Amino acid sequence: MWKIAIIDDERQVLQGMKRNIPWEELETKLVGEASNGIDGLNMIRTTQPDIVITDIYMPLMNGLDMIEQLRKEEFLGKIIILSGYSDFEHARQALRHNVSDYVSKPISVPTLKMILNKVIHELMDEEEKRMKQGELEHKLMLYEPFIEKEWVRSAAVGTLDNANQNGGILPQPYRFWSYTNHAVLGIELIRDERVRKFSVSDWNLFRFAVSNIVYELARRVFPTVEYTELHSTRAVLIIHPEADNNEHTQKALEVLGIQIIESVASYLKLMSRVGSGSIKSDWTKIPDSTEEAFRAIDLRQLRPAPSFEFFVYQGEVATEKEQVALFPVKFSYELANAMKAVQETKAQQLVADYIRELESHVGIDSEYVQMLGSELWGIISYCLYEAGHVLDDLFTNDQIVKEIKGLIQPDQLQKWLSEKISIICDSRQWKGSSKHRQVVDFITHYIHEHYAEDLTLAVLSDKVFISRNHLSIIFKNMTGETFNTYLTRVRIEKARELLLERNMLVYEVAESVGYKNFPYFSLLFKKMTGMNPTDLIKM
Question: Which of 319-333, 387-401, 475-489: highest mean pLDDT?
């Protein structure tokens, strides 16, 4: 409820306002009264009312001096001056102190009610703006790590917008990129027979462990690094070496690359390859170093230590057959994004363009085609897992393996991928998995049973053993609403039922459906139903 304080040295005026203000109708309550400015100032400091109704001429401290002191103390409540004198100079001073209204005594009850209604609506508008601002700041805080991670990935593969890619202003954490050198290590995990049996979720855990290993090793040598995953088997480590000693840097990259290969094999029993791109002085050339790192791997270029699959880019010196890169980095990234965004046409076009380029090279045998099919499927399945979609209900692992073994020519690979992309996009747009449906049904039932409790997605994620982020995506896909929107709708619908029964006061209804902040409840109720809770009772 909105809190009101009244300050007037005339006892009769004080009693009259206390008696005639329609407190319940306006959803307000009296929190304090005083008969002079000093007592009023102390009372306001203690009670922090939303609205102050005050006289000007009072003993000890007049109303204007009291208001001036309140504003110095950053009191943000609304102030209504109710004075027995109409004085232009006083009105001008009141305006300077951001007073909501200046009214001469005597005042009628309807006029007082009208003024209070106006001020309360101002308070509600301000409260709504504050909540929206708070929600925006909260969302920005939540999404900032994801936005930053995506920016680094785009910078690594060359998909930033033109303003950024042409040397625009860098985000604050990366301003130092402007005055350092840059080099990329490309990391490729090898999908051997053991790895191919991993579920997508297990593979995701291994990739997380790889990132921890790479970070720990890299930061021992280079103070600042960025690590970002590209798709199911590939990741990028961006390093910023000192400017004047490229030979020393290249040796340090070689040592680091071998340490990564050794540690991943030792701790995770995973085989990996690492490629080193050339050192760049301009940060906008980082994508070139990324492409070079993976070209070094694909072409099996300079291998300083024969016992380890660490390769250093040496330029385009291979034969035509050998120059068929597994996947251009930008292609892999754009395909993953198209699938996550359910952009079927774009995904199909990317695959068609890639296969066309593949067919222009001679000597592509069936083994190579099958390997490409396996890796492309890995890109698609992993990026969809990141978006909260597991393909187990559409395709079994045995089915995919069997179909890939039947691919002989590049055009067969394109046809196979095209069919799979269509099935995935159709299924994601119109229906979800039965397992996900069971989870969402449980959650919606739980909300209807426990709407009055302090429900959060984190609490429910523990009950269904699914991560909060994953559960959020599943719930939105199944219901078309976010968890918070659905919960709010259930609560407001229940509040509407209780209000129509007319057995409870409005603030009691708010508390019974889970809202301890009454003004916030009123705002939500009006937003969802188009009317205030009190208006519904009067119908």
Answer: 475-489
Dihedral, 8, 9, 10, 11 alpha carbons, nearest 10 = 90
CA atoms within 13 A on the CB side of 413: 26
pLDDT in tens, 302-340: 898 989 999 999 876 544 444 445 567 778 878 887 887
Handedness of CA 458, 460, 463, 468 (dihedral sign): negative
Rounded CA separation 279/285 (Å): 9
Domains and CATH numbers, the chain: 2-128 (3.40.50.2300), 179-317 (3.30.70.270), 319-431 (no CATH), 434-538 (1.10.10.60)
d(CA 307, CA 6): 85
**Number of alpha carbons in the 13 Å side-chain half-sphere of residue 108:** 3
Q: Tell me which residue of 443, 499, 485 sits closest to 466, measured CA to CA.
A: 443
Q: What is the DSSP string of 320-340?
A: TTTT--S--HHHHHHHHHHHH
Count of beta carbons in the 10 Å neighbourhood of residue 242 = 12
Residue 525 confidence (pLDDT) above 70: yes
381 CA to centre of own chain: 22
pLDDT, mean of residues 87-95: 58
Amino acid sitting at position 178: S
Q: How far apart are CA 334 and CA 446, in angstroms?
A: 39
What residues form DSSP beta bridges with 176? none
- The residues pairing with 21 across neighbouring beta strands, listed in sequence order, are none
Q: Where are the alpha helices (DSSP H) in 97-108?
A: none
pTM: 0.49
Q: Which residues pair with 275 in a beta bridge?
A: 186, 311
DSSP 170: P
Pick from 225, 229, 224, 195: nearest CA to 211:
229
- Give me the pLDDT at residue 324, please: 47
Q: Is residue 299 within 8 Å of residue 319, measured between CB atoms?
A: no
3-state DSSP of 277-313:
CCCECCHHHHHHHHHHHHHHHHCCCECCCCCCCEEEC
How high is the mean pLDDT of the chain?
Answer: 81
HEC secondary structure over 354-387:
HHHHHHCCCCCCHHHHHHHHHHHHHHHHHHHHHC
Residue 106: is the preceding peptide bond cis (ω within 30°)?
A: yes
Report the 3 state secondary structure along 227-275.
Answer: EEECCCCEEEEEECCCCCCHHHHHHHHHHHHHHHHHHHHHHHCCCEEEE
Share of the chain above pLDDT 70, in %: 85
- Asked whether 50 and 22 are in contact (CB, 8 A), the reply is no
- Taking the CA atoms of residue 334, residue 336, residue 339 and residue 344 in that order, the dihedral angle to the nearest 10 degrees is 30
Pair of tokens at residue 303: 């291998």
| Positive or negative: CA dihedral 165, 171, 174, 175 | positive
Q: In this structure, how many other beta carbons lie within 10 angstroms of the beta carbon of residue 181?
A: 19
